[in-house]
Amino acid sequence: MPQEPIDAAALPADEARQQATALRSEARARYIERLYSLGPVVGLVLLCLAATALNSDFATLDNVMNVLTRTAFIGIIAVGMCFVIISGGIDLSVGSMAALIAGAVILFINAASPALGSPLLAVLLGAALAVVLGAVFGTAHGLLVAKGRIEPFIVTLGALGIYRAYLTYFADGGALTLDNDLADLYSPVYYASWLGVPVPVWVFLAVALVGALILNRTAYGRYVQAIGSNEQVARYAAVDVDRVKILTYMLLGVCVGIATLLYVPRLGSASPTTGLLWELEAIAAVIVGGTALRGGAGTITGTVVGAILLSVISNVLNLTSIISVYLNAAVQGFVIIVVAFLQRGRR
C-alpha cells in the first residue's frame, strides 16, 4: 500500500522525525533488495564480457548453446531447490537421487523393451518412471521432515548415502548401460534441437516459467515464502505448514526426475559417479541467484541466472588456463561461502 503523505506541520517534531526515519529505513531496505536482485545479472554480464575478452570462442553460438545445454540439468534441479530453500529447508541428496533414478530408468527400459515388444513405448514409460520416482523420493523426504520432525539436513544427508549405495549395488560397482538400439532411440531427447535450440534448453525454460508462475502467482507460492520467513507465524495464520513442506520436497523430486530423464540419453549409462556434486551446484545456483539462505525470499529468475553464471565459470575454466578445470567445484564452494557471508544480515 502506498504511504500516505506526511503533513509535517500537523505532527509534533519528534513524531515527524520518527516518521521520516521510518520512511528512510524502508526506502533503504527496498534499495538493498533491488541490489540483491540485480547483482546476479550484473555479475553474469561482467563475467561474459571478461570471458569474451579472454577467449573469443566464448561468444560463438555453438559455445553459448553448449553452456545453456549443460546448464539445463542443474538449472531444472535448482528451480525445485529454490522452493525448498525459500521454505527454510535444504536437500543434499539430489545428485545421488538423480543417479539412482537414472539407473532405475536404464534397468526398466532394457527389461521393458523386449517384454512390451515396443522400444518406443519402453522409452516413454522409462521417462515417466523418472518423474514418478522423483516425486516418490521427494515426498518421502517431505514426510520425514514435516511429519517425522527430523531436520532436512539429516534426512537428505542420510538419503544421499542410501541412494548412491543402492545404485552401486544394482550396478555391482560398475555401470548400468542402455542397450545400443534403445540409446539411439532415446538420444534425441538430449541431442535434438528445435528452432536451433537444444531440447534440454527448451525444457529448462518451461520448468523455470512454470516455477516462477507457481512461486509468484499462487497461494502455495505465498505459503512457501511465509513459512521460510516465520514458520510459527504461518501456523498461526492457518497455513497447513506440513502439507506445504511435503509438496515442496515433492516438487524438487519431480524436478530431479525431469533433469534425469534428459540426462540419461547423454551418456546412456549410470554409475556411482553420476550426479556427483549436483547438490553443490544446485544450491550454489540458488544462493548466487539471490535467494536468502535462511529462507523467506528468493526468485526463480535469480536462480536461472545463478545457474547460468556457474556454467559460464566452468566454461571459462575450460576455455582458458587461468586455473585448472579440476578446481571448478572449489570455485563453486568458495562462491557459496562468500555469498552466505554477504547475506549474514539478510532475512
TrEMBL record:
Keywords: Cell membrane, Membrane, Transmembrane, Transmembrane helix. It is found in: Cell membrane. It is a multi-pass membrane protein. Pfam families: BPD_transp_2. The chain crosses the membrane at residues 35-55, 67-86, 98-116, 122-146, 153-171, 191-215, 246-264, 323-342. The keyword Cell membrane applies. This is Ribose import permease protein RbsC.
